[in-house]
Amino acid sequence: MRIGLAGVGLIGSFHAKTLRQLSGVDTLLIADVNAERARQVAGPLGAQALARVEDLFTAKLDGLVIAAATDAHPGLIIRAVEAGIPVFCEKPVAPTLGETLTVLKHVEKTQVPVQIGFQRRFDPGYIAAREAIQSGRLGWVHTLRACTLDEGPPPPEYVPTSGGIFRDCSIHDFDILRWVTGREIVSVYATGANRGDAYIRDAGDFDTAAVLLTFDDGTLAVVSATMYNTMGYDVRLEALGSKQSIAVGLDDRTPIRSVEPHVRYPGGTPYPGFIDRFGKAYERELAVFLDVAARRIETPCSAADGLAAFLVADACELSRREKRSVQMPEVRS
Predict the structure, then answer these.
(1) To 10 degrees, the CA torsion angle through 312, 304, 181, 254?
(2) What CATH number does residue 49 fall under?
(3) What pLDDT is attached to residue 332?
(4) Strand locations in the chain, DSSP E?
(5) 20 to 30 A from 19, CA-CA: which of 198, 234, 264, 288?
(6) pTM (2 decimals)?
(7) 27 and 50 in contact (C-beta within 8 Å)?
(8) How many domains does the chain contain in total?
(9) Helix (H) and strand (E) counts for the chain?
(10) In angstroms, rounded to a whole number, what is the distance separating the alpha carbons of residues 83 and 333?
(11) What pLDDT does residue 333 have?
């Protein structure tokens, strides 16, 4: 297969290495707004660097992986599906709700498969949690606790274009909570705080956030996020049921320490970043995308899924701004 890659920043460069190793990829073509960066990534991999991102659309691709900046996602997705090219795109679909809806209309019109990059769906722990919850083995689930705790804040130039902590960070939790439960979120209460670098506050964002979600069956979920978990990258999920309770992300590298006497768990080196924590999941999702691009399977994480998670993030921002609970029909309408 001839696969194109748009954008080779941190995650794009990792995707380039993964794609080059997948047996289904015969040719990898790489483009970036910085042509020199594209050449630097492509060279050691034996991939082909293109002078412009636009050149990807005349390269007779079998699939396109989009890891460019968020504001470039809508145009690249629309151009690809209009050309009949299956797309894998990192979350979110677009930086705004209006642009997300526009993309979704184009995808639905063309029926070209689009897979959104929510890599947690391909992590063994989350897969096991989904099976445990939906099989009924936990009994009825009364409480979910999810967290995404970054080891440090992004650079100042990133924050103003990120979409905010709910859309950029917690959106992963919103998606995975919908996926593992198979249920829909019906109401949201969110708040945020700033105790870190001033540039985050100056950009209108928050470095720490907390969200209370209510699902359509009455299950409650608490979502926590921060940019200042200096001990390491900490992503976990707890599902507490009437019969059993389980956790995802508790292993010897979890960046938290017990202060109970004589407890030495966990004892490993904490995860320093998201690629270390989810490297294998990123690889699995791209391997699956090759099957999606070849039309062997349906997309496991559609643009509609991306919209659903984005709507929850939008509801969080409305709730935080107006200091009240927001019902999801308010934002869906």
Answers:
(1) -70
(2) 3.40.50.720
(3) 86
(4) 2-6, 27-31, 48-49, 63-66, 87-90, 114-117, 141-149, 185-193, 208-215, 220-226, 234-241, 245-248, 326-327
(5) 234
(6) 0.95
(7) no
(8) 2
(9) 11, 13
(10) 31
(11) 80
